[in-house]
Design a protein that fits this description.
Layout (H helix, E strand, L loop, with lengths): L2 H5 L8 H15 L4 E4 L6 E11 L6 E12 L1 H11 L7 H16 L2 H22 L7 H13 L7 H32 L9 H4 L4 E6 L6 H11 L3 E5 L2 H13 L4 E4 L4 E2 L6 E5 L11 E4 L11 H10 L4 E6 L4 H11 L2 E6 L6 E3 L13 E4 L3 H12 L5 E4 L5 H12 L5 E4 L13 E4 L3 E3 L4 E3 L2 H8 L11 E5 L6 H8 L11 E2 L3 H11 L4 H11 L8 E2 L3 H10 L6 H7 L9 H16 L19 H23 L7 H19 L6 E2 L6 E2 L9 H12 L32
Parallel strand pairs: 4-10, 4-11, 5-8, 5-9, 6-8, 9-10, 12-19, 13-15, 13-16, 14-15, 16-19, 20-21
Antiparallel strand pairs: 1-2, 2-3, 6-7, 17-18, 22-23
Protein name: Helicase
Organism: Azospirillum oleiclasticum
GO molecular function: helicase activity
């Protein structure tokens, strides 16, 4: 028996390999007709290459589009193949040619081809309609060239959907380029951001006088502004911080004007009060006031919060608006006032006591009573505190993670002399009047949340200006710690402000803008609305520019899954949480989900762990985070009392935590603890974690994947090799 007879299938016997071989022969017979067979599928699936000439809308350019149309399964052909391979003669080339004619007729006559051509024509018609909305910005001839390139596919014939995807991508790219200006203008017009000033009807309807009181710290400009505010029958004082708002309330009441306090987390409404002191984000632009004072106006140039100052200057309805701050604000305010068409009077104030640069660097051993040592992170503040306590100083500290109540208590300790040295971040630059004789910068660089950079001249002037309180010190001095350069300080304090490259004030979309953008985009996604606003709007606007919305977008991502109206989610996304802390983002997201389900949210319970007298450094940091969570809960409880019903309990726990933090910070030394397990560490312990946690971490690193913790590992033991000089393991290892 020869090989051909041996390999010939038995009558009625065949397998999948025989079937695939027959399909390959059939595919070879029809390949010249553009027909392709998927031999790997069961049953086999057929497709045919189609050439469809079209005319690019708006031009006389003809383009031949080539694509592959799926015909699907041909049951009769499948049956004939199976019958042939199980026959005594098997599947021959003659049968392949004969069957190929049937396949060609079936494929070329398939109704799927007409449907595919209709899909192409429909896409071209849709494209023409969408392109028409771009008006003169659309260039159809240029797009025809891009369409030809997109349809080429390097000589290959793509499937119809692949071709349509490529054409749509080419159109999207061309449309984005040609219609971006049109889209931006449409969105800006629809949202109202393009005509931002028109959104403040009360302010636009009245004649306002704008006054800008500029001068360095300790020049009396805010005092003069508060005198004028107290003369008005009604008015509002707008501050960047709750501490300043509280000082504003006290300043007005000492001038005989009852004044209410309104911040994001609290309301202190005084009966019969016609004056209100509030944080600037809480400004009421619908009420008509007798006068308004907007403090720290130089913040209008801040990319994160500057929008609130723009909103206040543009929107407060009062015949007299007084802005107080440094001269850095002048270019921004001028650009804004030019847009409103109002009058601006600039009044310059001079410092009451001189501010001098101390050329000699200050060793830490020469820090003296009345000094404020400034760092730019909590970690550095606590390290300086520890060093100064070791040099027999009493120290109060102020940094951003502390609540306003604790900051004020720490400021009081320094003001009353209980603490002879202050260690602080640039949080002392606003809202605290302190008897500082000398400001000592520990560094002239800071991490601003995005990058580490040099301090700006404005920041150095703002911080350094806290030295030399009038009536307490003849002059103020600004110095740097040993090892730092005094040059940036000298330049900042002896040179006039440098105009900004872009003096356009910042603005941020409010709820009206958000809802209008959502309607224009036909979306309910807050994230998409904010991303569109941040990436597309106000790029070429002559007066305004869009604020940095990334933090708000991250918060929106946390709340967007909740079944809540867009307006509610937008308000939740403004909640004062640290978006860099994933735990706080998860907490906000969980609150939003509960609110959407109608489940009341309980106040955070972290305060129960801090009822002892004082804590360790680890407990202090945990207590600060717990205060932030309670502050966020209080902020939401004022706006959604039914969803966050435990306001009283929240404030009670917040007060407990603040008292614990105050007691801990007032201690002569701060006990150390392991951040992993909380075990107390000796003051001279060389490493951040305890020995037990470090050993567990090493054990986990050397353990094999899948090996249990109690499993013995033969032929291996860990050996500690001291480094030269007897220092043991490096600090970096722990």
């Amino acid at each position: 028996m020869d090989d051909a007879e041996r390999n010939k299938p038995l009558t009625g016997m065949a397998d999948e390999l025989d079937r695939r071989e027959a399909l390959r022969q059939l595919a070879a017979a029809v390949r010249g007709d553009g027909i392709d067979i998927d031999t790997e599928s069961t049953p086999a699936r057929f497709s045919v290459a189609v050439e469809h000439p079209v005319v690019v809308p708006g031009t006389d350019r003809r383009v031949k589009l080539r694509f592959r149309v799926a015909v699907g399964v041909l049951p009769d052909v499948e049956a004939d193949i199976w019958g042939a391979i199980t026959s005594p003669d098997g599947f021959s080339r003659a049968q392949a040619r004969a069957l190929g004619k049937r396949v060609k007729a079936a494929c070329l006559g398939s109704p799927a081809i007409a449907k595919a051509r209709d899909r192409v024509d429909g896409w071209l018609s849709s494209m023409a309609g969408r392109a028409g909305s771009f008006g003169d910005s659309w260039r159809p001839k240029a797009f025809a060239d891009e369409l030809v390139r997109a349809a080429a596919f390097g000589g290959r014939i793509p499937r119809l959907q692949t071709l349509l995807d490529a054409l749509e991508e080419a159109f999207s790219t061309a449309a984005a380029r040609a219609g971006l200006k049109v889209r931006r203008e449409r969105l800006e017009t629809a949202s109202g951001l393009g005509v931002y000033l028109d959104g403040f009807a009360s302010a636009r309807a009245m004649v306002r006088k704008l006054r800008l009181f500029v001068g360095p710290t300790n020049s009396g400009k805010t005092h003069a502004a508060m005198d004028r505010l107290a003369e008005a029958d009604s008015g509002c004082y707008l501050a960047p911080l709750r501490l300043l708002a509280l000082e504003g309330q006290e300043a007005l009441e000492t001038r005989g004007r009852p004044c209410s306090l309104v911040t994001g987390e609290e309301r202190d409404v005084r009966p019969g009060a016609a004056h209100v002191s509030s944080t600037i984000e809480m400004v009421n632009t619908n009420r008509v006031w007798g006068a308004c004072v907007i403090d720290e106006i130089q913040m209008i140039g801040d990319a994160d919060r500057g929008w609130a100052w723009t909103q206040a200057v543009a929107g407060v309805a009062a015949p007299e608006i007084i802005m107080t701050g440094s001269a850095d604000a002048i270019p921004y305010v001028k650009r804004l006032v030019e847009a409103t068409g109002e009058d601006l009077e600039i009044v310059e104030f001079t410092r009451k006591s001189p501010l001098r640069v101390q050329e000699e660097k200050v060793p830490l051993s020469e820090v003296r009573r009345g000094d404020a040592v400034v760092a730019f992170s909590r970690k550095d503040v606590m390290a300086l505190r520890r060093e100064l306590l070791g040099r027999d100083h009493t120290v109060s500290v102020i940094y951003g993670a502390l609540s306003p109540e604790v900051r004020r208590a720490e400021a009081r300790r320094f003001r009353e002399g209980t603490a002879d040295v202050l260690v602080a971040t640039d949080a002392i630059g606003m809202g605290l009047n302190l008897p500082i004789a000398r400001v000592v910068l520990s560094t002239t660089r800071k991490f601003d949340g995005r990058e580490e950079r040099e301090l700006t001249a404005s920041e150095i002037r703002q911080i350094g200006g806290r030295a030399g309180r009038y009536g307490m010190h003849e002059d103020g001095r600004v110095a740097v710690l040993d090892g730092e350069s005094i040059n940036p300080v000298r330049r900042a304090l002896t040179s006039p402000p440098v105009p900004p490259e872009d003096p356009r004030p910042w603005i941020s979309p409010n709820l009206t803008h958000v809802e209008a953008i959502a309607q224009e985009l036909d979306t309910d996604s807050l994230v998409r609305v904010l991303r569109t606003a941040g990436q597309e709007l106000l790029r070429a606007h002559q007066t305004f520019r869009m604020t940095d919305l990334e933090g708000r977008i991250q918060a929106a991502t946390a709340v967007d899954r909740a079944k809540l109206p867009l307006s509610v989610r937008d308000l939740l996304a403004r909640c004062p949480i640290d978006v860099r802390d994933q735990n706080q983002l998860r907490l906000l997201g969980g609150w939003a989900l509960n609110q959407g389900r109608g489940i009341p949210n309980a106040a955070p319970v972290g305060a129960e762990r801090f009822r002892h007298h004082v804590g360790t450094d680890v407990e202090l940091e945990a207590a600060e985070r717990a205060v932030k969570e309670l502050t966020a809960y209080a902020w939401l409880a004022y706006r959604f009392p039914e969803a966050y019903p435990e306001m009283d309990l929240c404030q009670e726990r917040r007060a407990t935590l603040n008292a614990f933090i105050e007691r801990t910070l007032a201690e002569r030394s701060l006990a150390r603890a392991c951040p992993v397990c909380g075990t107390r560490l000796k003051a001279n312990h060389r490493f951040r974690v305890c020995d037990s946690c470090y050993a567990s971490r090493v054990e986990q690193r050397v353990r094999r994947p899948g090996e249990s913790a109690g499993e013995e590992r033969p032929h291996h033991r860990r050996v500690h090799h001291p480094l030269p000089g007897g220092r043991g393991r490096s600090r970096a290892g722990r």
